[in-house]
Amino acid sequence: MSVTKTRTSSFSRNFASVNSSQIPGLKHGPNGTMFISSGIPDLDKILGGGFSLGSLVMVMEDAEAPHHMLLLRNFMSQGLVHNQPLLYASPSKDPRQFLGTLPSPAVPKDDKSSHRDPDQEKGLRIAWQYKKYFGENQHSFDSQGGKHEFCNEFDLRKPLERQFLSGKRIDCISIQDSPNLVTLNDCCATFLSQFPRSDGSISSVGRIAIQSFCAPQCEFSNMEWDMLSFVRSLKGMVRSSNAVAFVTFPPNLLSPSSCKRWQHMADTLLSVKAILDEDKELEKLLTGYQDMVGLLNVQKVARLNTQVPVILEATTLSIKLKKRRFMVLECLNQAPIDGSSGSSYGTTGSCSVSSKSGTLDF
Q1: Quick one: how many helices (H) and strands (E) in the chain?
Q2: Residue 191: CA atoms inside 13 Å, Cβ hemisphere, count?
Q3: Which domain of life does the UniProt lineage start with (predicted)?
Q4: What's the pTM?
Q5: Considering Cα of 36, then 90, then 232, then 87, what sign does the dihedral take?
Q6: Percent of the chain having pLDDT more than 90?
């Protein structure tokens, strides 16, 4: 008796990577795209889920203020919290010292209530038949007692605990004294070889963070064609691996033609800009201007495995520090239409109303 073989269509979904959803810090997206978190909840929502696996993210720095470091630190800390291997390249002489400035994940309010005194819990009126369900959620906690969240909220005033830095696969490279980019290219190739995409399954993901590429202290800063070739090579290597490369660069140190080529090479392109304190015109125009530390502009969003363009609600957002320690992104509100500060990107907005009601108010 012959056995009929089920015919699979070429357009059928590949279920080989279904188990990858159990990997901390990995999330399924549309069209078979996998996302890792940027370390900023609002930015993940803006980008449609986070950074696409196999994409090149580039951030254009501002010479007036190091706001790009906020994005870089959160990106690196999020990977270490999820136990993802990290390759960090910096123009400083000792890049490993930078790891001491990474922020620590904040303790959620729900977790604070879980550390109550057992004597206090006696007064809680919980039915006995529901107590057996408390043990079912133990698998969602890691060894430190925290939940495996896709994106954490990081406390910029609290340094990352040593437990996240010890025993991890962290490679730090100094590109200050490198005469060319051969060493950096070989290190990236060796690092990305750990995360091949050819087999279809995902066992782990990696992150590459390159700070201030083409900085003046690097000897190759005047080799624009060599740097462009490296960016093109890095994009090709990342595309065929389960990793994300995050590169920041100062555009003012490049020629206009090279800067345009770099922007074209990026899958996700962001830029940051400082806000001057004495800008009185902008202060009158925007609500919550006093709480802003900078502006974030989303110039390009990665769209892998699809040709559908991305239509963002807003491309320019304000960077604010909630309680001077938590980074949030908010849509710009024009004053004096709404006297309150702008709402976070993740919150639902509504039409603002004036204090005096009228027939045209809505």
Answers
A1: 8, 14
A2: 27
A3: Eukaryota
A4: 0.78
A5: negative
A6: 49
